[in-house]
Amino acid sequence: MSTSVRTSTTPTTTSATASVTARTTTPSILPVPADRRTRNGIAGTVLRAFRRAPGLVLAAVVLTIVIAWALVPDLFTEQDPLMGEPADRLQAPSTAHLLGTDHLGRDVLSRVVHGAAASLGTTAIAVLIAFGAGTLLGVVSGFLGRGVDAVVMRLIDVLQSIPGLLLSMSVVVALGFGSVNIALAVALASIPAFARVARGEVLRWRSTLFVEAARLSGIRTPEIIGRHVLPHAVAPVFALAALEFGSAILAVSALSFLGYGAPPPQPEWGLLVSEGRDFLASAWWLTTLPGLVIAGVVLSVNRIARSIGSGRRLS
Amino acid sequence: MRITPTAVLILRRLGHGAIVLWAAYTLSFLVLFVLPGDPVAIILGGADQSTATPEQIQAVREEHHLDRPFLVQYALALSGALRLDFGTSYATGMPVVQAIVQSLPSTLGLATAALALAVVGGTALAIIAVRTQRPTLRNILAGLPGLGVAMPTFWVGLLLLQVFSFRLGWIPALGADGFLGLVLPAITLALPLGAMIGQVLLTALDRAWAEQFVTTFRAAGLARTRLLLTHALRVASLSLLSIAGVLTGNLLSGAVVVETVFTRNGLGRLAESAVSSQDIPLVQGIVVFSALVFVVVNLVTDLLYPLVDPRTRPAARPSSRRTARPVAPTAAQEVSA
Question: Which of the pair, A93 or B334, is modelled with greater confidence?
Fold first, then answer.
């Protein structure tokens, strides 16, 4: 249900991209300028893409950097995220410490870079679990129909009747604190969206002629689902997964902000912001800059997710 | 004859709501009381369990019916819940219902203020974006909701505190009561909500603006602004109704974060502290309460639909539904369309 809100932006996006393509294709009647003809290869492709959709390219760049942070953090910072230099504590951003230092003299940039693995990893696990479980529920529910469908959909109704954060919090109470438990908690809250979309797709493709024909030719149900329905049904679910990734980052960081994630020395993004709370008056960079990173990443993910959604629509 | 279909609708919705509530109770019971290893350890306070005597442990087990078989525990709990008895808080010993009711007024005030801000802000954004003749302004306005949705609520709250309490000193960071204390939390809570409302309303207004009746009205000479504010907005408000439940859920979720950031007492703070201290009955009470709110809000919106949109009146004959189509497509339809 929450997805309908986010996906509802797509019409605006499509119209925006449509007008952009119109602008770039109109001059093609004219002779192609020499510099444009010669600019080939990766650099040319990137430049052309940037001209057509600057926001999208920017989002891709942000995301690439952040994923690189998660994979090889040492490439981006040489400072220790856990051990600080007490003499350098609470220093404002400077060339030595781009994002400043915290109350223990730890470099904030280093903590943000090293926190990417934890925050993005937790989010990825959450989305993967929700994707798997939700799609399974939706496909089974849509294909078996009748009683199974009714029971599954009521279950989804119940999950949706409880606000996402509260649902996640009750899972945290049951399982205890920790990154993996947070991932499970966030996954449970985003299962309904996946189940609904998967079910809708299965219902749509199940009633097509070629599936009907497959059934009449005596192909068994599992094979029909696997070979004839799923390949079609899975694309919108992927588009949803991209969208859900953005909100899952927010959910994970909110839970980590509330202190339900990894214990304090760990540099999780939400926790970083929370640690800066005590220094709001004296050290603005402790809360502002890590939060800015979270917002930037979510914005980038959402931008890419929208283009995935609208790209599919155009095809 | 004219009342019957509505009555049937209400009864069906009530039945559906009751089932959802029962299932929410059962689900939260399963998750909260069955999953954790040992509730006794939690009640007696985690690490101190080794110091507890066997008699103490036995007493706690009996008090919370933990010595009974699972189904008996469930039946006892459910029959209690039907009498509005959700047990007592592990941490304070206060009845759960009383704790929730006590914290409710503060959150209700915050939520009302935030909702009002969000509706006004979101609607203004959507109307200006549709009405403006300048493409740049429209693009900026259309991009704002995406920005609002992407910002972490806790971060927005801390930023506001930093700027208005610590930099400018306009509002005391702590202990501001009444209206002044409500301003920053309400803005924080309203931001993501207003973004959602603006986004949904903008899309719906654009869609309504392309409808044939709008063309007809314009051809007949109705002023653009008047047409927009009366007719198009009425059609578009239907899609706001359809997300009322989601908005309420976001208000409750947001209240947890906002009340924690601004150290305000209320339902959200209660939930946060209940989770931190693993106060299982209290968490369950809040979860079931939020499900109740969701069910009630959905019931009310279901009843409001026919008032706003004559096409959805239950007594309508099939032929009159020719023009009726889902005003707010479901997520599945939107994504797959």
Answer: A93
Please name every residue paired with B88 in a beta bridge, in sequence order, or none if there are none.
B95
Cβ–Cβ under 8 Å, residues A169 and A186 = no
Backbone angles phi, psi at A101, to 5 degrees: -130, 160
B contacts of A257 (beta carbons < 8 Å): 152, 154, 257
Residues 6+ apart with CB under 8 A from A263: A177
Query: How high is the ipTM of this complex?
Result: 0.82
A236/B contact by beta carbon, under 8 A:
yes
Per-residue pLDDT of B315-336, as tens digits, reads 544 444 444 444 444 444 444 4
Domain boundaries, chain B: 9-82, 96-312
What's the pTM value of the predicted model, to 2 decimals?
0.82
User: What is the distance between the alpha carbons of residues B177 and B107, in angstroms, rounded to a whole number?
Assistant: 14
> Residue B264 is encoded by which pair of tokens?
């305000």
At residue A150, what are phi and psi to the nearest 5 degrees? -60, -45
d(CA B307, CA B303): 8
Interface check for A280 against chain B (CB to CB < 8 A): the answer is: yes
Of B24, B280, B334, the CB nearest to A173: B280
Going by C-alpha positions, the residue among A205, A186, A208, A172 that lies closest to residue A134 is A186
- Give the architecture-level CATH label for domain B96-312: Orthogonal Bundle (1.10)
Residues of B in contact with A158 (CB under 8 A): 20, 23-24, 27, 291
What's the pLDDT score for residue A102?
78
Domains, chain A, in order of start with CATH, read 51-78+100-310 (1.10.3720.10)
CB-CB neighbours of A46 under 10 Å: 13
Q: What is the 3-state secondary structure (H, E, C) of B285-316?
A: HHHHHHHHHHHHHHHHHHHHHHHHCHHHCCCC
